[in-house]
C-alpha cells in the first residue's frame, strides 16, 4: 500500500553555499502534505476512532502510577481558558501541559499502537498534542480526524525511511515534526507557518537513545509526551512569526549531517502525492499485551508452547532466533546486564524479551501489572528460567522485519527449547495474534473490550459508556462536544496514586 500514489523524495545534506531552494526542503515537502486539503478516507477515520479508544484505555490503566500522577500534577498548576482536558480530572488546562500529561498517561505502560520499519514508533503519541490543541482552539471532530491523519502519516513515512536508533538517536525525533504537521492540518495553517513549526519541533526533540538503554527510567514515557509538548509550543511560536533552523534535515550542520548518516548519507522519504488520502495509520497495529511490540509475538508463542514443554524445570536452554532489531534492542545482543536483573525497573523488564518469554511460558498469560510486579520478577524459578534464555539474530527474520510486503513483514521469532534429556522443541510465530494478519486481529470490538478491561476499577461504568459513545462519534462531534474525548474518575481512585513530592510549580 505504501507505494500507491506516493512520491519518494531523496533527502541528503547540502552545503551552505549550495543552491537548495526551500521548496525542495523535506520540511517544506511535509508542510505541503499537511496543507493538502484532501478528504480523509472512511477506513482511516474508523481506525482513528479505534486508536482514540485505545489511547484512553491504556491511560486509564496507568492513571495512578507515579509518573502519570506527576505529569498530571504539573498540568494542574497551569489552568487555562479555554484550554484542554486532562485524563482523570475535570477543568481545563494550558494545551501544551495537557499534551504532556496525557502523553505520559498514554505512553507509561507501553501498551498502545506501533509501527516498525527502518525505525520504531508509537504513532498514537500524536493524539494527545493534536487533541489538546483541537479542544483549546475550538475545532470540530472532523478537523481533529484530519489533523490526526496527518500526524500518523508523517511519522510513519519518516519511520519507513530514516533509521534513528542506528545512530543512537531516540525515535521521538520523528514524532515532534509529525505532531507539528498534524496541528498545522488541524488549524488549517499555511505552508510557510507549518514549515517553520516542523523545523522547530525537530530541532527541540532530537535526543539520544539512552532513555531506552541500560537503566530505563520513567523518562521513557515522558520523552514522547515532551515531544508532543514541544510541537504545540513550536506551532505557537511559528504563528507568532518565529522561524526555525533551515534546512533542518539537510543543512551542513543539520540533523542528517551530524545526528544521522553523515554528509554522504541519502534517504528516500515516501510522502503522499497531492490529492492522495493519508492512509498510513492502516499500516500500524496495536498491542494486546503491555510489552514492547517486538515481544508481542513471543508472548503468544510462549503461551502456545507451554503445554508441549510440560515440566518447565526440565528446560536446559531456550534460544529465540529473531530479527536484528529484536536481538539488539530487547535481546541479549543489547549487552545490557540490566535485562537479567530481578531488581530492574518495570521499564527495563518491558525491554527484556528474555524476562517476558520466561513469565509468559510460566503463566500462560500476560498482565500489565502482575507480570511486572517486583515479587513476580524475583521468583526464584522465574530467575532460573529467565537466565536460560538468549536471543540470536537470524538473517531471514531480519529480512522479513524490513520487508515492504505486508504479507511477509514479521516481528516474531523461532523458539528452540532444549530439554535436559536432549529433546528439542521448536515453534515459531511471525506476527502477534492481535496483528491484522494474526490469529485474532483487533477490530472495534477488541478495542472496546480492551478499554473495558483496563478501565475496570478505575472509570465508573456510566463514564465508560459516555466516553465510548462520544469516541465512536468523533467525526461528527461539534467543537463543544470535543471536550468529551476524555474521562474523569473519582477522588478515591486518584487517591491511590503514591504521595508526590512538590516541584517548582
UniProtKB/TrEMBL annotation:
InterPro entries tied to this protein: 2-Methylcitrate_Dehydratase (IPR053420), MmgE/PrpD_sf (IPR036148), MmgE/PrpD_sf_1 (IPR042183), MmgE/PrpD_sf_2 (IPR042188), MmgE_PrpD (IPR005656), MmgE_PrpD_C (IPR045337), MmgE_PrpD_N (IPR045336)
Residue ranges of every copy of the MmgE/PrpD C-terminal domain listed in the record: 289-473
Any Pfam family the entry gives: MmgE_PrpD_C
Domain MmgE/PrpD N-terminal positions: 24-267
SUPFAM superfamilies reported for this sequence: 2-methylcitrate dehydratase PrpD
Domain of life: Bacteria
Family classification: Belongs to the PrpD family.
Protein name per Swiss-Prot or TrEMBL: MmgE/PrpD family protein
Source taxonomy: Bacteria, Bacillati, Actinomycetota, Actinomycetes, Mycobacteriales
Amino acid at each position: 500500500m505504501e507505494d500507491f500514489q506516493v512520491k519518494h523524495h531523496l533527502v541528503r545534506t547540502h552545503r551552505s553555499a549550495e543552491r537548495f531552494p526551500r521548496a525542495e526542503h523535506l520540511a517544506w515537502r511535509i508542510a505541503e502534505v499537511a496543507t493538502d486539503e484532501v478528504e480523509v478516507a472512511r477506513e482511516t477515520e474508523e481506525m482513528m476512532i479505534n486508536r482514540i479508544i485505545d489511547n484512553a484505555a491504556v491511560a486509564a490503566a496507568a492513571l495512578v502510577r507515579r509518573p502519570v500522577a506527576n505529569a498530571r500534577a504539573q498540568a494542574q498548576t497551569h489552568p487555562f481558558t479555554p484550554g484542554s482536558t486532562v485524563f482523570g480530572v475535570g477543568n481545563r488546562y494550558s494545551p501544551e501541559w495537557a499534551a504532556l500529561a496525557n502523553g505520559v498517561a498514554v505512553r507509561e505502560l507501553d501498551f498502545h499502537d506501533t509501527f516498525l520499519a527502518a525505525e520504531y514508533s508509537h504513532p498514537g503519541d500524536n493524539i494527545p498534542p493534536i487533541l489538546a490543541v483541537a479542544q483549546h482552539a475550538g475545532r470540530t471532530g472532523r478537523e481533529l480526524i484530519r489533523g490526526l491523519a496527518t500526524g500518523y502519516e508523517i511519522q510513519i513515512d519518516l519511520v519507513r525511511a530514516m533509521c534513528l536508533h542506528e545512530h543512537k538517536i531516540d525515535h521521538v525525533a520523528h514524532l515532534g515534526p509529525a505532531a507539528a504537521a498534524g496541528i498545522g492540518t488541524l488549524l488549517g495553517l499555511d505552508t510557510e507557518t507549518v514549515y517553520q513549526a516542523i523545523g522547530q519541533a525537530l530541532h527541540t526533540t532530537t535526543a539520544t537513545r539512552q532513555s531506552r538503554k541500560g537503566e530505563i527510567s520513567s523518562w521513557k514515557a515522558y520523552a514522547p509526551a515532551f515531544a508532543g509538548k514541544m510541537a504545540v509550543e513550536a506551532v505557537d511560536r511559528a504563528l507568532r512569526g518565529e522561524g526555525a533552523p533551515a534546512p533542518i534535515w539537510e543543512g551542513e550542520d543539520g540533523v542528517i549531517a551530524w545526528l544521522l548518516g553523515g554528509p554522504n548519507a541519502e534517504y528516500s522519504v515516501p510522502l503522499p502525492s497531492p490529492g492522495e488520502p493519508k492512509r498510513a495509520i492502516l499500516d500500524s497495529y496495536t498491542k494486546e499485551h503491555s510489552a514492547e511490540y517486538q515481544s508481542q509475538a513471543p508472548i503468544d508463542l510462549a503461551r502456545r508452547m507451554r503445554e508441549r514443554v510440560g515440566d518447565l524445570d526440565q528446560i536446559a536452554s531456550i534460544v529465540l532466533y529473531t530479527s536484528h532489531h529484536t536481538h539488539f534492542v530487547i535481546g541479549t545482543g543489547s549487552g545490557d546486564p540490566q535485562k537479567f536483573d530481578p531488581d530492574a525497573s518495570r521499564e527495563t523488564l518491558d525491554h527484556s524479551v528474555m524476562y517476558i518469554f520466561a513469565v509468559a511460558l510460566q503463566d500462560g498469560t500476560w498482565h500489565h501489572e502482575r507480570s511486572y510486579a517486583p515479587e513476580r520478577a524475583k521468583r526464584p524459578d522465574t530467575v532460573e528460567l529467565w537466565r536460560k534464555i538468549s536471543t540470536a539474530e537470524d538473517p531471514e527474520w531480519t529480512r522479513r522485519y524490513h520487508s515492504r510486503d505486508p504479507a511477509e513483514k514479521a516481528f516474531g521469532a523461532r523458539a528452540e527449547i532444549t530439554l535436559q534429556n536432549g529433546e528439542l522443541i521448536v515453534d515459531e510465530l511471525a506476527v502477534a495474534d492481535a496483528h491484522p494478519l494474526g490469529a485474532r486481529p483487533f477490530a472495534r470490538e477488541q478495542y472496546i473490550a480492551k478499554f473495558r478491561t483496563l478501565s475496570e476499577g478505575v472509570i465508573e461504568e456510566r463514564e465508560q459508556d459516555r466516553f465510548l459513545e462520544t469516541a465512536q462519534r468523533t467525526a461528527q462531534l461539534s467543537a463543544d462536544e470535543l471536550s468529551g474525548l476524555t474521562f474523569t474518575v473519582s477522588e478515591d481512585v486518584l487517591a491511590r496514586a503514591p504521595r508526590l513530592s512538590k516541584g517548582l510549580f
